[in-house]
Amino acid sequence: MSIKETFSVTGENLLKRIKELIAEGNVTKISISDKHGKDIMSFPVTLGVIGVVLAPIFAAVGALAALLTECKITVERTDKTAENEGEETPKTEENTQSTDIEVH
C-alpha cells in the first residue's frame, strides 16, 4: 500500500527537498508540478538507486529549480505501519497470508 503526500516548495529549495526525501528511504516515486498543478517531471525511486544513477535526475531538477519560483512535490511512500504490523505477528501456517497489491 502506498501513501501520497504533496509539498509546496520554492524553486531554490527544490533540489534540497528532493535529496532529503530520497534519503528517507521509503519513497517510491516523486512527481514535480508547477504551482498550477501541471506535471513537469516524474521519476521512480527504487531501492539500490545510488548517486551515479540519480546524478542526471538531480541535474534536471536543478535546472528546473532555476526556472520555477514555486512548485509542488508529490511523493508516493510505502506504508510503514502496514509493514510493521506484519512483523509483530509471528508467522504460522494459520496466519500466513499472501496478498499482491498493484498500485498505479
Summarize the helices and strands and which ones pair or pack.
Layout lengths: L1 E9 L3 H11 L2 E8 L4 E6 L6 H17 L2 E9 L1 H9 L16
Antiparallel strand pairs: 1-4, 2-3, 2-4
Q: Can you describe this structure in just a few lines?
A:
By secondary structure, the chain is an alpha+beta fold.
Protein architecture, described:
The protein is an alpha+beta fold and 104 residues long. It contains three helices and four strands. It has a four-stranded antiparallel beta sheet with strand order 1-4-2-3, covered by helices on one side. Strand 2 (27-34) and strand 3 form a beta hairpin. The termini are close together.
Portion of residues within helices: 25-40%
Quaternary structure annotation:
single chain
Sheet with the most strands, sense and barrel status: 4 strands, antiparallel
| Rg over C-alpha atoms, rounded to the nearest angstrom | 17 Å
Mean pLDDT over the residues: 76
SSE string: EHEEHEH
What portion of residues belong to β-strands?
25-35%
Number of helices: 3
Structural class assignment? alpha+beta
Biggest sheet, spatial arrangement of strands: 1-4-2-3
Please count the beta strands (DSSP E, at least 2 residues each): 4
The backbone outline, from C-alpha atoms, is globular
> Terminal Cα separation, in Å?
11 Å
Low-confidence stretches: 87-104
List keywords for this structure.
104 residues; alpha+beta; globular; disordered C terminus
